[in-house]
Amino acid sequence: MTVDVWMQQPTARWSRHEMFDSIRRWTGQSALTEDLPIDLTVAAMDQAGIDIGLLSAWHAPREGTLISNDEVAACVAAHPTRFAGLAAVDLAKPMAAVRELRRCVTELNFTGLRVIPWLWELPPTDRRYYPLYAACVELGVPFCTQVGHTGPLAPSETGRPIPYIDQVALDFPELVIVAGHIGYPWTEEMIAVARKHENVYIDTSAYTSARIPTALVDYMKTRSGRTKVMFGTNFPMIGHQQALADLDQLGLDETTREHYLHRNAATVFDLP
Question: How far is the C-alpha of 73 from the C-alpha of 83, rounded, in Å?
Fold first, then answer.
């Protein structure tokens, strides 16, 4: 089994957003003119041997909903054995955000919350996140976020693992935090924070296997690091086959590979 912990089922309004101009320049991809059918995403997953994908909703501070929670829920309902949902909320309205998170978890059966700090230009220590952290703990779901520099055209400061992820983990030791996009160029900071805090994890979304930093690969091969790193793509920015192409070159033993590709994600997100 292989689980992709960071995917989007792209809408045209999400794909066309100007913040992704730099991503399109790097990848040569064009913005969608219409929403991508979910069956095409499933076919891409089948081709690469991806069993389950975690689909992220997106809510932006100015534009509002780019991929709605209900659109994600519809994709999960269409293929309930292939997808799980991650909620997005409006940080500017903390109580409404908490209520929406509760709805997504209790009514839509979502398996976590994802907030993109650079999108809001608010680091994870901002007071507007803290009611959501408490709600995640009470609901028993992870808080998923982004670390490292930003490929999109936005400031990168909010992606620093230290002090931001470190401080949140200190303030909410029961909160499970999944830090996506590795943390480059602060990868070793991110490893240090994951090593320090029992409930902090890393996912490799936005990186192909060949581009995963050596420091993170070495950490994955340790006894503690084996259970702390998960596979992700950031689909559709990176395709599943592209992300997995050089996996064998990482030199992971069978047990470490199983943890990386599915066991860690199954544990953290309570997947089958």
Answer: 9
